[in-house]
Specification:
The complex is a heterodimer of chains A (345) and B (343). Chain A has 345 residues and is of the alpha/beta class. Chain A has a single domain, classed as 3-Layer(aba) Sandwich (Rossmann fold), CATH 3.40.50.300. Chain A is 30% helix and 22% strand. Chain A has 11 helices and 12 strands. Chain A has an 8-stranded mixed β-sheet, sandwiched between helices. A 4-stranded antiparallel β-sheet of chain A has the order 2-1-4-5. In chain A, strand 11 and strand 12 form a beta hairpin. The longest helix of chain A is centred in the middle third of the chain and has 18 residues. Chain A is globular, with a radius of gyration of 21 Å. Chain B has 343 residues and is an alpha/beta fold. Chain B has a domain of 205 residues: Rossmann fold (3-Layer(aba) Sandwich), CATH 3.40.50.300. Helix content of chain B is 29%, strand content 23%. In chain B, the strands form 2 sheets. An 8-stranded mixed β-sheet of chain B has the order 6-7-8-3-9-10-12-11, with helices on both faces. In chain B, strands 2-1-4-5 form a 4-stranded antiparallel β-sheet. Classes of the chains: A alpha/beta (345), B alpha/beta (343). At the A-B interface, helix 6, helix 7, helix 8 and helix 10 of A face helix 5, helix 6, helix 7 and helix 9 of B.
């Protein structure tokens, strides 16, 4: 199943995207600093990173929802099926949002309007984008809720968000995101605010709906477990740049970037007996004060002098595996104490 | 012997009986009234904690897991006497503190401290780090100013922060560093029991493991007893010696770490473990249908029967008691019959 989609045509192409934010003290924060990736139809791509790594800013840039004038997309191109999103006018962009690209946010309760019924909120994009009549839109809303796995949907359309639990509201948000048959769904931490048993229900639902509609999902998360469960491909972000890109299987079997290795080793796992967790020293640098060379160098165990001079390029090695680290320049060498050794410790 | 209901109390002599109990909780209940109508009369109760009996032993880490609304945080607050229980008893270090007044409890507070979930809202932004850590010392210890200063510096060192940080303010620190300050503050009156209410759930993974390390190190160094409240089963597995699983205010299962993860008995624990997303999943996927019922209107019989894949007639009528299955493993489920301790 996984990997079959590779031959599919590209749906979203992001090239050299740079989004900078001007802070109050006139400093410039390079929230997204040269990001390129391609998402193909039918696949789920996960964007993983810690807070401040620029993962949410990347998704907001795709939706063109960067708060202006402090934030600005300075460079790059974002193409949805060949259409350049950055050149669209605000009016044209409105036709893309919620219609061609659906979005699911982290906190389900704050992403719905508390004073409108569930039915009205699902019907809104249908009436706006698909020009449906009121009755027709309501009928569709009930269908969508059933599809999202909510029991007695005909009653839920009349309810208000506060009457539903977190898991149910997230299903409603998914129903809204899916309402206009979007080509791409951007899910920003869709399950972070939910309990584990509900989380697995929602992840299952998202995969199911994606396969039914042959759309693509860009999932933004900090949870490595969620990635392994729900995604086909992963991109690891650090300091506004993608530091590693691979298929999920490949990344977990053979992580290359020291940051990815550290990240994987610092997550407590339920199946493995670990006496001691590894941890990465220090914290993520703020985006207005990135180090000059490799952004991970100050926290990296393997950093050499060359690391502090220039930002390394993404190097492609075997199996569609790309990594932004000087250690892999030239031939395939690994950091000397690799993750396998650590796991046995 | 860890936890018992009134019926099983008599035959409960096992190995752990010999260890010292730091905290004992007996048949603890906490109901929050729900007010409604024009006259704001009590129209019902949210049964946050319902008949919980457990002990925390000296030097161990007891994990408390459950979904939101299961009553785990309320139980933590009850033990600290930040809330008054509706019924039941709390025994701390051999003394029944249940009916103590706020004034009378104060000397005991020194021995029990809490680490909060949100490092951003649990520190007063207008106090310097030094003042924040010194505050509990002023309240609890009779030390001179100089002695307090030295203790603050010592504590900052213990949690891995520099001496100079005491002149800085919370906003100057990252989430992980703030959590370290929170830990230093909790440790300042030299407590015996530290309750961590989701202490790492808001931190990034790489920082999360740093804080977990620190907590384990300090436990050994200062001989601390932890009650670790969390929703994250992987973190709990890493940190705890024994784990209690809560569902709708009751304990569904309680066991030492290894037997709980290797052989979970309660269908809820099984489902909970199965739904943790994992990198190297060998576990079977069990999906729980529906959501947790509201604690103001819990189902009759077994609280879990509405979602349980193995529920049968008896579960809807009769509530299962917590049964001793041997080896410190307790479960409240009709699928199991009690292990006879006499044999």
């Amino acid at each position: 199943m996984r990997g079959v989609y590779m031959k599919n045509e590209p749906l979203l192409e992001v090239n050299g995207l740079k989004t900078y934010i001007t802070l109050e003290n006139k400093k410039q924060a390079k929230a997204v600093d040269g990001v390129d990736f391609v998402i193909h139809k039918g696949e789920t791509t996960a964007l993983v990173g810690e807070s401040g790594s620029g993962k949410s800013m990347t998704s907001m840039s795709i939706m063109r929802l960067i708060p202006e004038p402090s934030g600005k997309i300075v460079e790059g191109s974002i193409k949805l099926e060949g259409k350049e999103l950055l050149k669209l006018s605000e009016k044209q962009m409105e036709k893309v949002r919620g219609n061609e690209i659906g979005m699911i946010f982290q906190d389900p309760h704050s992403s719905l309007n508390p004073v409108f019924t569930i039915g009205m909120q699902i019907a809104e994009p249908l009436r706006k984008h698909k020009k449906m009549k009121k009755k027709e839109a309501y009928k569709k809303a009930v269908e969508l809720l059933v599809m999202a796995g909510l029991p007695n949907a005909d009653q839920i359309v009349k309810m208000y968000p506060h009457q539903l639990s977190g898991g149910m509201v997230q299903r409603v948000v998914i129903a809204i995101a899916m309402s206009c048959d979007p080509k791409l769904i951007i899910a920003d931490e869709p399950t972070t605010a939910l309990d584990v048993t509900i989380q697995s229900q929602i992840l299952g639902l998202m995969t199911e709906l994606k396969d039914q509609t042959n759309s693509a999902v860009l999932m933004i998360t900090h949870d490595i477990g969620v990635v392994s469960e729900a995604a086909d491909k992963v991109m690891v972000m650090y300091g506004g740049q993608i530091v590693e890109k691979a298929s999920v299987k490949e990344l977990f079997r053979n992580p290359k970037h020291p940051y990815t290795i550290g990240l994987l080793a610092s997550v407590p796992r339920i199946e493995v007996e670990q006496e001691r967790l590894e941890s990465i020293q220090g914290t993520v640098p703020p985006s207005h004060a990135f180090p000059k060379g490799c952004r991970f160098a100050p926290r990296c165990k393997h950093a050499i002098e060359a690391c502090t001079k220039t930002v390394p390029e993404l190097i492609e090695s075997s199996n569609d595996h790309e990594v932004r680290c000087i250690l892999y320049r030239g031939e395939e060498t690994r950091p000397c104490d690799n993750h396998e050794q650590r796991n046995t410790n | 012997m860890t936890i018992m209901n009134s019926e099983t109390q008599t035959n409960s002599l096992t190995s752990s009986e010999t260890k010292d109990k730091l905290v004992e909780v007996k048949n603890l209940k906490k109901y929050f009234p729900v007010k409604g109508g024009i006259l704001k009369r009590t129209i019902g109760h949210v049964k946050a904690v319902e008949d919980v009996t457990l002990s925390i032993y000296q030097g161990e880490t007891l994990g408390l897991v459950g979904e939101s609304g299961s009553g785990k945080s309320t139980l933590g607050r009850l033990i600290l006497k930040l809330l008054n229980p509706t019924e039941g008893r709390i025994i701390f270090n051999g003394k029944d503190i249940t009916s103590y007044s706020q004034r009378k409890i104060r000397p005991y507070r020194k021995n029990m401290q809490m680490i909060y979930q949100d490092p951003y809202s649990s520190l007063n932004p207008r106090m310097s780090v030094g003042d924040l850590i010194e505050e509990p010392l002023i309240l609890h210890d009779r030390l001179t100013k100089k002695e307090r200063q030295n203790r603050v510096i010592e504590l900052l060192g213990t949690v891995g922060l520099g001496e100079d940080t005491r002149f800085k303010y919370p906003h100057e620190f990252s989430g992980g560093q703030r959590q370290r300050i929170g830990i230093a503050r909790a440790l300042s009156p030299r407590p015996a029991l530290v309750i961590g209410d989701e202490p790492v759930s808001l931190l990034d993974v790489s920082v999360q493991s740093q804080v977990l390390h620190l907590m384990s190190e300090l436990q050994i160094k200062l001989n601390l007893t932890y009650l670790f409240i969390s929703h994250d089963l992987s973190v709990v597995k890493h940190m705890c010696d024994r784990i209690a699983v809560m569902y709708l205010g009751r304990i569904a299962e309680m066991a030492p770490k290894h037997s709980l993860y290797k052989e979970p008995l309660h269908p809820y624990t099984k489902a909970l473990i199965a739904s943790v997303p994992g990198v190297d999943r060998k576990r079977e996927k069990v999906k729980l249908e529906r959501n947790m019922p509201s604690p103001s209107n819990p189902p009759s019989g077994c609280p879990f029967h509405t979602r349980c894949p193995e529920s049968h007639n008896r579960c809807t009528i009769e509530r299962p008691e917590l049964k001793n299955m041997g080896n410190d493993h307790y479960v409240a489920c009709h699928l199991y019959t009690e292990y006879d301790v006499q044999r």
